[in-house]
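Ticket #4471: structure export looks truncated?
Reporter: QA, pipeline team
Priority: medium

Steps to reproduce: submit the single chain below to the structure queue and open the exported record.
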Amino acid sequence: MSRTAADTAEGRGAAKGPAPSRVVVCRDCCCGTVKVPGDHRSQTARLRSAVPIRVSECLDVCEQANVIVVQPSAEARRAGAKPVWLGLVNDPDATEDVIAWVEAGGPGVAPMPEILELYVFVPNQRSARL
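Actual output as written to the record:
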């Protein structure tokens, strides 16, 4: 996975200070394109305004477009938390649920909102190295 010019400056989100986890947003071959309905620019801008994000090239799970990966903070990762892969995140309400979860602490810190469980999927091995 490579970073693009759209990445945030070392992942700082809104002026609240650094969030305890980071969001990776796929924006390449399918995610964020006309192949998938939705306002992708608004979704990316909304995430960027609230939480640390990194925009990625293709994560190789196109059948799940739009893909968002919520990565745990370093502390939560040391305690065993794993990244959570969310697919088909094409609804503004789902984007708001992701933001609320990250602001609450994200994986390993805050319980995932039940509604987000509908978006969770297990990536293929190649993609899972994120």
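Status: closed, not a bug. The export was complete when the record was re-opened. Leaving a note from the reviewer for reference: The longest helix spans residues 92-104.
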